[in-house]
Design a protein that fits this description.
Low-confidence stretches: none
Radius of gyration: 18 Å
CATH topology: TIM Barrel
Oligomer: single chain
Number of strands: 8
Helix content: 25-40%
Distance between the termini: 26 Å
Number of domains: 1
CATH class: Alpha Beta
Mean pLDDT: 94
Length: about 280
């Protein structure tokens, strides 16, 4: 089953558009584990167990593991997801972007070492920095397109004078993801929830690609506006929430609180979908 088929299947199975980001910060762990990087996998696995039936994907952010020399714990977490939630895909948030043999090795890291179903990429270096990740027809990529950080305007909103219609960089990338940069049908885009009008524009230009939409929750994105702008019955979206779920409580009830936060977010997202 391809990545996008798995994403669609998980959406139906769990009636969910919610992606839970796994960004483990030991400084914010429950009091008994606070500051202990050796408990990263324990913390993440508890979140997975609490939310596995409420999500359509999990998105571990590799930097939160690597900074603590915890790549082995990342492997354990993904292996746990495979056991506890075998029908929920894993998106490795790595934002890689390189060419040639280096890109091939990064693809092996994502798909062989970590067994991710998809990986986030920075497309700044062009098609040959993306292509190695799409050699596996069942694995997917999400290209950074219109991100939610203020500095995204520095490049993404600039117009391309030598392209017909003078689109912005993010508009041009959306068109590429729908067409030339999507040879296996497994290319998606990252679009921030803080820009619902631009989510709608990306969806207009890329009507069938999956969208990974961070920014709901702690970053203040409007969940309902996000769904209205991006969701289509034939085009999945994965709306990510990380901190609002992971750190819903700093007490011993952190997993139960994470479940409550995930359930509330899932319901918010579902109520925004147009009636069938």
């Amino acid at each position: 089953m391809s990545f996008i088929d798995r994403l669609r299947a998980a959406e139906r199975l769990n009636d969910s558009l919610l992606c839970v980001g796994l960004d483990p910060d030991p400084a914010r762990f429950p009091e008994a584990w606070r500051g202990d990087a050796a408990r990263i996998a324990d913390f993440c696995c508890a979140i997975v167990d609490a939310t596995a039936d409420l999500v359509l994907a999990f998105k571990p952010q590799i930097a939160y593991f690597a900074a603590h020399r915890a790549e082995d714990q990342l492997e354990r977490v993904i292996a746990h997801i495979r056991r506890a939630a075998p029908r929920v895909p894993v998106i490795l948030d790595a934002k890689r972007g390189d060419i040639g043999a280096t890109a091939e090795l990064y693809a092996r890291e994502a798909f062989e070492r970590y067994d991710a179903d998809a990986v986030t990429l920075s497309p700044f270096m062009g098609w040959d920095s993306v292509q190695p990740y799409l050699r596996s027809p069942d694995r997917g990529v999400f290209l950074l397109c219109r991100t939610s950080n203020p500095g995204g305007d520095d490049l993404q909103a600039r117009r391309l004078a030598d392209v017909e219609g003078q689109p912005t960089v993010y508009e041009h990338l959306a068109r590429l993801a729908q067409t030339a940069w999507n040879p296996t049908g497994q290319t998606g885009l990252v679009v921030g929830a803080t820009y619902p009008a631009e989510i709608a524009r990306v969806r207009e230009l890329a009507p069938t690609v999956p969208l990974l939409i961070p920014g709901v929750g702690a970053q203040g994105g409007d969940a309902q506006a996000t769904v209205r702008a991006g969701w289509r019955p034939d085009a999945p979206i994965a709306v990510n929430s990380s901190r609002a779920v992971l750190y819903a409580s700093s007490g011993a009830d952190f997993a139960d609180a994470a479940r409550r936060a995930a359930l509330a977010t899932r319901e918010q997202l579902n109520t925004a979908k147009p009636a069938a």
